[in-house]
What we know:
Blueprint: E1 10-17, E2 25-32, H1 35-46, E3 54-59, H2 71-75
Amino acid sequence: MSRETEGVTASWEVFLRPRRGLSHQHVGSVRAGDADMALEHARDLYTRRGEPLSLWVVRSADVHAASPTERDPFFSNAHHKPYRYPEHFTPLTGGGDHDDDD
Length: 102
């Protein structure tokens, strides 16, 4: 038996991978009593057009994310690491900037 009690529905987030080479994308939510029913609802709602490569459902309560209000403090830790930004590196040129023994 699932973690849900019988007759109680939970919210599930739906992720769809439309075709090979693409990432899963969040496409919406469904309500269902268990994961199998959530997959069926997601299939019925979000795969009517085309044949996706895969479909995931994740209980909404199990998704943890940074909110937009946390954006600056959450992602600001990289500013003191300039090597993570392309501006830190000198562009390569076609000239004689390197040592050649000709």
